[in-house]
Amino acid sequence: MKETLDVLEEPRPADSQTGVRFSIVIVNYNGGTMLLECVLSALREGVPTSQIFVIDNNSHDDSIQILERRVSGMLVIHNDRNMGFARAVNQGIVRASTEFVLLLNNDAQLEAGCLQAFSDGFDAMPKMAIAGGQLYYPDGKLQSSFAPFPSLTEELVPRAILRCIFPDRFRRKMSGDVPLAEESVFGACLCVRRSALPELGLLDEDFFFFFEEIEWCHRAWRMGKEVYYLPKARASHRQGHTANRFRGPSRIEYQRSKLIFFKKTRSSMVFLVLSGLMVFRALINAVSNALMCVATLCLNKRLRVKARTYGYVLCWHLWGRPAEWGLPGK
C-alpha cells in the first residue's frame, strides 16, 4: 500500500463554515467519472480537501487519474488489492481529525445543504452517534435509506406482506422532513460522530461488502447510543453500480455478509435456520430459473443471466461456501 498527497490546483469550495466540521471517506473501485463527481459535491459543501480521503481498492480504470487532474490536496490511499469496504473505510476514518466523519459511496453526490442538515442533527441530539441521509435515485425517486435489523421474520415472510401488516416497522423510505430514530441507516451516505468512536469502534472488517454499516448501527444501539435518519441530508445515489457489474459474485458477498451478521448478533439456532433456508432458496431459484431458461430455448438474455447467477450461488453453498469466491481482486 502507498499513500500520495496531491499538489495540483485546488477547486474553490463553497463559502461555508459547516463543511470544515466534516471529513469525507470515499472508497473507490473502478468508479470512472463518478468518483470526480462525488468529490466535487463534497467540495461544494465546503469540505476542505485536506479532509477528503479517497481509498482506492486497486482500480483498473482511470478514475484516480481523472480525479487528480481536477482536484488536489486530498489524501489518496492506493491499496494493492481489493480490501473490501469496511477495511478501506477504516483506513480513512483513522486519519480524520474533524468532529464528524461522513462515509460517501463513490457513486453518490451530496446535494446542497446536506452537511448543514447533518450538522444541525448532531447538534440537536447529543446522544446520536450515527446518522444516515435521504438517498435519491438520479431521476429524483426516493431510495431506501434505512431499515430494521435483519431478522428471521423477514427471511420467512415476504417483505411486501410485512409492510402491509406493520408499515412503520418494515418501511425503508419515507418522505417528509422529520428526523426518525431508526435501527440502521445505509452506508452510501452515513455520518458518525468522531467522539463516539473510542467506545463504538471502527467498522467490523469481517464484512467484506454489505452489512458492515448495519452491524455498526446494531453495536451503537446495544451501547445505548442513537441512530437517526435525517431526511434533510439529501444525496443522489446510483445504487448498485459495483454490484450490478458482478451479479453472481455480489450476491455471494451479500449472502456471506448476512450469515456473518446473524452469527455475530443472533442465537446459534437462528443462525442454523437461516443457513439452511439460504441453501433451500438457492436450490429453488437455481432449478426454477434453469427450467424457465430451457423452456425459452435460452433466447431470453435476462433469464440466462438469472439462471447463471442462481446456479453460481447454489454451487457456492454446495461447495462449502469457499472464502475465495465472491467479488474479484481480494
Any overview of this molecule?
This protein has 330 residues and is an alpha/beta fold. It is built from 12 helices and 12 strands. The chain has helices at residues 33-44, 63-70, 85-93, 114-124, 152-156, 159-165, 197-200, 212-222, 241-245, 247-265, 268-295, 301-318; strands spanning 2-5, 22-28, 52-56, 75-78, 100-104, 108-110, 128-136, 146-147, 180-181, 184-185, 189-193, 226-237. Strands 1, 2, 3, 4, 5, 6, 7, 9, 11 and 12 form a 10-stranded mixed beta sheet that branches. A two-stranded antiparallel sheet has the order 8-10. The longest helix has 28 residues, at 268-295. The chain is globular.
SSE inventory with pairings:
Blueprint: E1 2-5, E2 22-28, H1 33-44, E3 52-56, H2 63-70, E4 75-78, H3 85-93, E5 100-104, E6 108-110, H4 114-124, E7 128-136, E8 146-147, H5 152-156, H6 159-165, E9 180-181, E10 184-185, E11 189-193, H7 197-200, H8 212-222, E12 226-237, H9 241-245, H10 247-265, H11 268-295, H12 301-318
Parallel strand pairs: 2-3, 2-5, 3-4, 7-12
Antiparallel strand pairs: 1-4, 5-11, 6-12, 7-11, 8-10, 9-12
How is this structure best summarized?
This protein has helices spanning 33-44, 63-70, 85-93, 114-124, 152-156, 159-165, 197-200, 212-222, 241-245, 247-265, 268-295, 301-318, and strands at 2-5, 22-28, 52-56, 75-78, 100-104, 108-110, 128-136, 146-147, 180-181, 184-185, 189-193, 226-237.
